[in-house]
TrEMBL record:
Signal peptide: 1-26
Gene3D superfamilies named among the record's database cross-references: SGNH hydrolase (3.40.50.1110)
GO molecular function list: phosphatidylcholine lysophospholipase activity
Pfam families membership: Lipase_GDSL_2 (PF13472)
Domain of life: Bacteria
Species this chain originates from: Agromyces ramosus
Domain SGNH hydrolase-type esterase: 49-272
Protein name, entry field: Lysophospholipase L1-like esterase
UniProtKB keywords: Signal
Amino acid sequence: MHGRGGRALIALVVTGLLAGCAASSAAEPDLTELEPPAAAAEVAALGILGDSMSLGVNACGEQGQCAEVSWAGGSDPAVGSIAMRLAAASGAEPEVVNAAKDGGDVGEALSLADEVIRARPQLVTVLLGGNDACAPSLEEMTPAADYEAGLAALFGRLNVEAPDATILVLSIPDLHHLWEIGRTNPQAVQAWNSSPSCSNLLGAADDDSAEADARRDAVAARVDEFNAAIVRVCAAAERCIDDGGAVFAYDFSGEEISAIDFFHPSIAGQRAIAEIAWGALEGGSE
């Protein structure tokens, strides 16, 4: 499923998951009538494995981590995180163990899983792969086979060592789309061109040459491969729910992207991810 054409294949799924999501970008989500999802009916401990997106990096007014607005474990009512939704639905706040790592990839998540496993979670959220695709060069991207093997090892370990946990895994956002919506913004281009982050996609951001387009398309293709691997690995694991590609298909708007680096989700973007994740959890089954 390639980026530009893949959205059409899952448009109906995304429409169902994101009903009312556009409106939520302007107001706090209403959590008053939530019911505990069957796949996570009682969650005393919520484990989080991921990267900077699960840490709210650059979502607040200053550069750096802002975990209170994390889509997964945050406490800010403007986001309505998975942790807050679980608390609203059940009346009991879960213990949140956020073992996400800024800049972390799938291999590092496997090494950080101990912290989550020790908490004996009933739900583990996973959003990984952006740093496996983003690299200084195309050659330094994680090979698709290695990403899939790492994810399979991670889920296998969670199944064995956290046997009560449902795994909720989200697709990787369409990173190429983020470049598309920022490429005409001089501030975004300046930020990207002056940063070493994700330079295989965002480097020379205003270069419209065929070579630059091919480079960006190669990153997009690797993200597609990773997202296909997520579906396969989740299907093979026990107690695993994926989002049907909904995060990848979501067309983040300019206001849903950080004004600090024009790459990470803003508070509104974190809210959009939380909406998608909760919809997937509600629609999933053990």
